[in-house]
Amino acid sequence: MRKYLTKYFSLAIGVGAGTAIYQYFINSTDAFDFYKPIFIALVTFVILSIYSAVKHQKSN
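^ thats the sequence. predicted structure below, dont judge the formating
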């Protein structure tokens, strides 16, 4: 289970970093929102963690 959490954490960090890169370079007409990539990374991590827990319960 810990293996999946570290995998999903790194995936969530990647999604947050991608959001920050998009927001900084592509969507540069708006002001940079510091909390948006952090929030998206946290939501992604929570959703993937719940998915992992449900998948693990179904396999048992």
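Residues 2-59 form one domain.
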